[in-house]
Specification:
The complex is a heterodimer of chains A (about 220) and B (about 240). With about 220 residues, chain A is of the alpha/beta class. In chain A, about 35% of the residues lie in helices and about 30% in strands. Chain A has a domain of about 120 residues: P-loop containing nucleotide triphosphate hydrolases (Rossmann fold, 3-Layer(aba) Sandwich). In chain A, the strands form two sheets. Chain A has a six-stranded mixed β-sheet with strand order 6-7-8-3-9-10, sandwiched between helices. In chain A, α4 packs across α5. Chain B has two domains: about 140 residues, no CATH class; about 80 residues, no CATH class. Chain B contains nine helices and two strands; from the N terminus they run ααααββααααα. Classes of the chains: A alpha/beta (about 220), B mainly alpha (about 240). At the A-B interface, α2 and α3 of A face α7 and α8 of B. The complex binds adenosine-5'-triphosphate and magnesium ion. Magnesium ion (MG) binds next to α1 of chain A.
Chain lengths: ~220, ~240
């Protein structure tokens, strides 16, 4: 086996409806891969299966040569950073700053380092003026930025981003793209997106899905 | 199993058995009610196995409660105890078993009701002349419950994906995590209900007093038969209970 994430003949059903069929995939540790396809083709489900959020029914998924069925969500989460398609699904702290520092706090990181890192992220994502704001009242784009920032703060080795540019304005899209340029050198990224410009700019490989199958997989 | 039972029939039989469960003390009669409940669950196609699976995690809690309940009953012959201290008496044991059966009957009632299509159950309530507003609110409440569960599951996933192993945390930290579950639930619910009330207003909810409905429920002969036999069974059991006492 090579490839950081390997999916072998994976099938997945939800409520007895087959959603993903015969998925074979190998993802490298340093590559930007885009997943494209129409609504309902199973892109989000694929991302969730790889992250272990949804259990697959058949086949195997390996993360760094370890079968993900044997790993806990926390163990997977330390390696893979997953951005939900809907940022509201992953924001749970009442305050912006708490949301960012949450994981570091429970990993017993030194208070000073936590502060440094959170403040750096707040600036990076233009959220500093909102640091004491209630997450509930943030605008959609602000929520999206907060969600991305909290995922990145964990410094994952691999990123799965489900529609990262949705809800962002032109300026913030550009900034996210610049950030991803920097990240790409050390982190593998699987990006699910409908954003043509974003896909064309970053992709080194494009996977096309339709009706739960991978119908095309090409290098760029 | 009988198909297409009117939700009102299910409601009537559930009201019968749960009322009986509450008024009776005698464990033998409760046993009869429990059997009736299991029988009803069978003919209405309720999934009791599923019920057992769901409650198995909290089952021990029931047992503990029953045990504690029975400790407080001091009458009857002593089963466990030293010298003057009575720990468990025969009466206490009987009382405990009674409680257990009551809980089971109530759970079975829930399982029977959950076989109803909620839309139809609400329609049944409306046709029983319940004001539409109240029926509508009830149906909304029922729809919100699974959303709660969903919200909690999502938050738990999000927390774990940050690399936090809940099983390895101290008790204090775990409680803290539980407090984090509240924000998304409260925020999510407020948000959804706000949107919902707006959307309902926009579509002219309560604009007219008279409402018509596509679904109309009609009782069949089997329904009337089942309702009357539930009633007969209840009255019969009440009489037997009177005679035994
Ligand atoms: N819990 C579920 N039960 C049944 N079917 C489901 C469930 N969740 C998702 N689906 C179905 O699975 C299919 C794939 O969904 P998925 O969210 O992966 O699509 P997607 O490619 O991400 O679409 P989009 O571009 O809209 O985000 C859809 O047809 C959806 O209806
Ligand atoms: Mg999707």
């Amino acid at each position: 086996m090579n490839g950081f994430i390997v999916v072998e003949t994976m099938y997945l059903s939800l409520n007895h409806i087959p959603i993903l069929k015969n998925i074979n995939l190998s993802l490298d540790r340093h590559q930007f891969v885009s997943v494209v396809g129409p609504n309902g083709s199973g892109k989000t489900t694929l991302g969730k299966a790889i992250t272990g959020i949804i259990k697959h029914n058949q086949g195997h998924i390996y993360l760094n040569d370890k079968n993900i069925s044997l790993l806990s969500l926390a163990e997977i989460g330390r390696t893979i950073g997953y951005l939900f398609q809907n940022p509201e699904k992953q924001i749970f702290a009442p305050k912006v700053i708490e949301e960012l520092s949450f994981a570091l706090k429970y990993k017993k990181v030194d208070q000073k380092i936590i502060e440094e890192k959170t403040i750096e992220m707040l600036h990076l994502f233009d959220l500093y003026h909102l640091k004491d704001a209630t997450t509930f009242f943030l605008s959609q784009g602000e929520k999206q930025r907060l969600a991305i920032a909290s995922v990145l703060l964990n410094e994952p080795e691999y990123l799965i981003l489900d529609e990262p540019t949705t809800g962002l304005d032109i300026k913030r899209r550009k900034e996210l793209s610049q950030l991803i340029d920097k990240l790409k050198t050390k982190t593998g990224i699987l990006s699910i997106s409908h954003d043509k410009e974003f896909i064309n700019r970053h992709s080194e490989r494009i996977i096309t899905m339709k009706d739960g199958c991978i119908i095309d997989d090409k290098k760029c | 199993m009988i198909k297409n039972v009117d939700p009102r029939t299910k409601l009537a039989s559930v009201i019968c058995i749960s009322t009986l469960a509450i008024i009776f003390q005698n464990p033998l009669i409760l046993m009869a009610v429990l059997f009736a409940g299991v029988f009803l669950a069978k003919i209405f196609g309720a999934n009791l196995l599923m019920l057992i699976k769901r409650i198995r995690h909290i089952l021990f809690l029931f047992i503990v409660i029953i045990f504690i309940q029975s400790l407080f009953v001091k009458t009857g012959t002593v089963l466990i105890g030293f010298e003057n201290i009575r720990i468990l008496t025969s009466e206490g044991l009987i009382r405990g078993i009674g409680y257990l059966m009551r809980i089971l009957i109530i759970l079975i009632s829930g399982a029977i009701l959950s076989t109803c299509d909620m839309r139809k159950l609400i329609q049944g309530l409306i046709q029983m002349k319940l004001p539409y507003d109240i029926a509508f609110m009830t149906s909304l409440g029922i729809k919100f419950l699974p959303l709660f569960v969903e919200e909690i599951k999502d938050t738990m996933i999000a927390i774990q994906l940050r690399g936090i192993d809940i099983n390895q945390l101290s008790l204090r930290e775990r409680l803290e995590i539980v407090s984090y579950l509240f924000t998304p639930i409260i925020a999510g619910t407020l948000n959804k209900s706000k949107k919902l009330s707006l959307s309902v207003e926009c579509r002219g909810f309560r604009a007219y007093d008279r409402r018509t409905s596509i679904t109309k429920l009609k009782m069949s002969f089997t329904d009337y038969l089942m309702i009357s036999s539930s009633l007969l069974f209840s009255v019969g059991l009440i009489m037997i209970d009177k005679i035994l006492v």
